[in-house]
UniProtKB/TrEMBL annotation:
Identification of the protein by name: G-protein coupled receptors family 1 profile domain-containing protein
Regions that span the bilayer: 21-45, 57-75, 87-104, 140-162, 189-209, 238-258, 270-288
Annotated keywords: Membrane, Transmembrane, Transmembrane helix
Molecular-function annotations in GO: G protein-coupled receptor activity
Amino acid sequence: MYTERNSSYNSAPLCTFNAPLFLRYVGTSVVVLGLLGNFLSILVFSRKTLRSRSCSIYFLALSVSDVHVLLGYTIETLLSYGFNSQLLSYPLMCKLIIFLIYASTDVSNYLLTLAAIDRCILVSNYSVRFRFCRKSTAKLAVLIVVLVFSLINSHILIGFHVDETGSCVTMNTTYSSFYTNYYDSYIDIVKTVLLPFLIIFICNIFIIFKYTRRIHFSMAKISSKRKSRRRREKDRQLTWFLLSTSILFVILSLPSEINDFIRPYLSSNFQIVYFCQIRACATMLILIHQINHASHFYVYTLTGPIFRKEFQRLICLSPKQPRKKDFLVHLQQPSLTLNVSPQYDLDTHQINNSRIPHSSNSSAYVSFQASI
């Protein structure tokens, strides 16, 4: 894919569709909005309220990986073909950027897969969820995914080089044949799209099935523990994040991979005759693929009230909610003699009721209930 696209752009005839101009404006907008959104997602998922969940660790790592995907796209496609800035003519940049594109794309897709597995295990009734759905396990899984796909794509660091014309191409005939006919077609589409899609699809079907069975029971059973309700609400919204990003992953990523799979089998004569149409199609599909990595923040904002709330606190610097530690310190004050009661939802009109005895202990109890 990469070698043919290089030569095609360099020897481009005049076409009705101006791909460089399209990339210059639309591609730049996608990259700028995507980088901004991913950096904001990193800040929001790093907040204490969200980072306590294992799935949030995967979404945090996904945002970091998406930043790397967009940076690789910016250098390899946007700057090269939109602004005619050939940074890939440097040998080190040639190897690193192509490696970054493949490795970070794989990492992003499998982090989303891990998030799907995490949610699937969480909604199940198996005891394994207490071992797998933890922050420490999530951090270890992220590290393993990064290492594994860095090793799988490490051959790119050896197989690519800058030729005499300054183009970043495959090094020799043997590797070029392997890369074009096998790795960038069969291996890449299975590894990058089909396998993650299959796992995510199965997990999402299981999650939806579980939630539809529990919805009536959940509405009928209202827990009195506020902390437990907040925890379940976070889990529910993280699950919606997963479902929405999974749908985007399939819709926006699969067309580009299918195009990469088909293009090597097109005859040379066909590619010459329909060059402008093929280039326009490839440009659009690559940009659509990048929208998948650029849109996650906006999907989270639209689908998650908790994410929006944390984002508002982040940008407005709103005061923090009273912590449990402050509550315990308040209990330990020597001036208060309290008979701790589990009934913390005392109505305001009951506090102001004149029939309450005006003893020191009662005043302290009422004062404490009002502060809550």
